[in-house]
Amino acid sequence: MCKGGNRLTCQKHNGDGVTDELFRAEGLSKTYPGVRANDEVSFSVAAGEIHALLGENGAGKSTLVKAIYGLIRPDAGRMWLGGVPHAPSDPHAARAAGVGMVFQHFSLFDALTVAENIALGMDAPPRRADLSRRIAQVSAAYGLPLNPARRIESLSAGERQRVEIVRCLLGNPRLLIMDEPTSVLTPQEAEILFATLRQLAAQGTAILYISHKLDEIRTHCDRATILRQGRVVGTVNPRDHSARELAAMMVGAEMRLVDRSGRQAGAVVLTVAGLTSAPATEGTSLQDVGFQIRAGEILGIGGVAGNGQEELIAALSGETTGRPGTVVLDGHDLSAQGPEPRRRAGLLAAPEDRLGHAAVPEMSLTENAILTGATRQQLQRRGVIDHRAARRFAETIIADFDVRTPGPATAAGALSGGNLQKFVIGREILQAPRALVVNQPTWGVDAGAAAAIRQALLDLAGRGAAVVVISQDLDELLELSDRFAALNAGRLSAPVATEGLTLEQIGLMLGGAHGMEVAHVAA
Amino acid sequence: MIGWTTLLLLMSAATPILFAALGEAIAERSGVLNLGVEGMMITGALAGFAAAHATGSPLAGFVAGAAAGAAISLIFGVLTQYLLTNQVATGLALTMFGLGLTAMFGRPYEGVKAPSMPGGPLGVNWAIWLGLALVPLTWFVLNRTRRGLILRGVGENHDAAHALGYKVRLVRLVAIAIGGAMAGIGGAYVSIATVLQWTEGMTAGAGWIALAIVVFAGWSPWGVLAGAWLFGGVAVLQLRLQAAGVAVPVQLLSMAPYLATIVVLVIISARQKYRGRGSAAPGSLGRPFHATR
């Protein structure tokens, strides 16, 4: 087995001693126009092990598992499953061979019932009554309660994932692929998931677990195969390595640690009080949300998506306006103002939904830069756009935030998600806001770029701005923020100091157990 | 008082729209918005009439109408599913194409009489019976069979369906062809069973009303039946009023079925929304599907 010490040269098993090898890939390659997604990938998975597939965004993890699940055909290379050549032409063939997959973005049908969704994921579903009975059996056996008659749209993220898992389990898979399964779960929900996975592994199912959450992998996985730019860097026992070592293998260089020093809280910049949004037909309405934030301070707001994050950023950016006194910046009441007056006053926002609220996909980066930067960057004169200044501003964003693009004339929609995210965040930060609100600042961004974005947010706070970071990534919030508050069902807990806060306490706050626990934490 | 004859007239007036709307409901449940219903109907009307005239058999006419409707719908299918053209624009173009094409090829058939429709049980011709039978059949296939479930899945979330290994474009192409065939039968009914001759543009907006019915009926076959009968009922009523010589301009009366159908359906669907049931529209309706391989 691989021992610690020589971490980069620790290669995959060469077969000796591993008698229960279930899956093996050799020399898998897949090329898309302009990018080599998988380059001679070889690795193996043993029966009954939880095997992590680790890598940055774009490292080729998804391409690799899509090949195993029959969604794409590799250009070269071979696979074996249980000693038999495995070359599925489509997912039906892969499922028949014993491969199950739980997708990162759930492959569920919102308007259909749980039973219908599960039937669609099976190749020979039994009759309705039998199916419901089998769903109940599997649910009970693995502690995953489900009501077959419920519609997907009424389920929480954790319940949706349960549907996907039960759908896979009904096919009795020998190899279960999980693509970033915990990205939408609270820490408690993730624990339940791991209990299920360990139970499955104990019964001999091999689990291929994709993630970039290093602590999770170090705690729960038996082996980890690390991919970088489509190539296997090595297969290691993750317990023998620190998170930093694993990250270094993923990125190929030492990670730049964010520097939190040199910040002092100043006067109160932004005061939000009694923010209550009208009950919306869909989504969560905000209930009496309030907080204060000082110059040079970063407030982290955590919570599982759908608990009011979209509504909160809309209320702060000015997309929705509120009652007088709800949003006050430097003593000026901006509650009734729309986004443009708020920008002029210095309250800027970078929403998460990059192609919905933050950028127009068909327009060039220059034009997108004008959309929010026109006033503060003086990109217009008497209503006429100053194109030269706008292009210069866009070029500055591209250079300062390492946006990989041919140039400012490129359409925003042509950028990868991570690159567009860098552009959107950079556009707001470079306008030197008094207060900046960001939602999911590093979602879909690779580890190196995420560190750069976090550092830019810290630097902004260091220059005396107040920063509100809304995120689902708890590690990110702990790394960045001075104070932490949880958003649950439209209610915001009282912010508490981040220092000394444990993931467990945060989990309880996210679950809605405010009051007592928070008081305990604060004490 | 509504007698059997009135009911018969009502069903007859409703039948073309029933066929077309059921077909469109199937296509839309698979996620395809085909605005070319009027064009497919008129194509079916001419092809059906020509075949019935040539063979003397109304049955041959309906078969030809279905085939022609399916054939022209496949133009739309290939364009939108494989060449990824915009569904709205392509559907509108299909309607104009169908109207123009039939105006040209229909010339020789103007003034020609259709062979007579044989009667059926209870004096109702078998085309009406077929339309009625298709309502529960469509419901059953959509909601109780595996193929129906796959079709709904493709319409609800085509990315998920693709990820699970279903052939999104093929499913949609089949749904489009079924929709085209049924619109063609609806058109053939107009020329063979109702008007008994060919006139340019004779479907007179029935395809558009069918489209509206599908939406307001919430994509349900039973709702489609209700909408079609409502249209048929008001159509019969206004004919009666015209015959009785009511002092209302004929144009207003002729407008009545279209107006009444839309108004009632809007009220029904607005009430459903008000009760918080939301829109029943298939999640991927009208969105182009492009698989990354």
How does this structure look, described?
The complex is a heterodimer of chains A (523) and B (293). By secondary structure, chain A is an alpha/beta fold. Chain A contains 18 helices and 23 strands. Chain A has 2 domains: 21-251, Rossmann fold; 267-511, 3-Layer(aba) Sandwich (Rossmann fold). In chain A, α3 packs across α5 (157-169). Chain B contains 11 helices and no strands. Chain B is globular and about 60 Å long. Chain B is mainly alpha-helical and 293 residues long. Chain B has one domain (4-277): ABC transporter involved in vitamin B12 uptake, BtuC. Chains A and B meet through α2 and α3 of A and α6 and α7 of B.
Layout of secondary structure:
The complex is a heterodimer of chains A (523) and B (293).
Chain A (H helix, E strand, L loop, with lengths): L20 E12 L2 E12 L3 E5 L6 H8 L7 E6 L2 E2 L5 H7 L1 E4 L11 H7 L7 H14 L15 H13 L5 E5 L7 H16 L3 E6 L2 H7 L2 E6 L2 E6 L6 H9 L16 E8 L13 E6 L3 E5 L6 H9 L9 E3 L2 E2 L5 H7 L1 E4 L3 H5 L6 H9 L6 E2 L2 E2 L1 H14 L16 H13 L5 E5 L7 H16 L3 E6 L2 H7 L2 E6 L2 E2 L3 E2 L5 H8 L5 H7 L1
Parallel strand pairs in A: 3-8, 3-9, 6-7, 7-8, 13-20, 13-21, 16-19, 19-20
Antiparallel strand pairs in A: 1-2, 1-4, 4-5, 9-10, 11-12, 11-14, 14-15, 17-18, 21-22, 21-23
Helix pairs in contact in A: 3-5, 12-13, 12-14, 13-14, 14-15
Chain B lengths: L3 H26 L7 H19 L2 H25 L4 H19 L20 H19 L1 H11 L1 H6 L4 H27 L11 H11 L4 H23 L6 H25 L19
Helix pairs in contact in B: 1-5, 1-8, 1-9, 1-10, 2-3, 2-4, 2-8, 2-9, 3-4, 3-8, 5-6, 5-10, 6-8, 9-10, 9-11, 10-11
Membrane topology (chain A): Peripheral membrane protein
Keywords (chain A): ATP-binding, Cell membrane, Membrane, Nucleotide-binding, Repeat, Sugar transport, Translocase, Transport
Subcellular location (chain A): Cell membrane
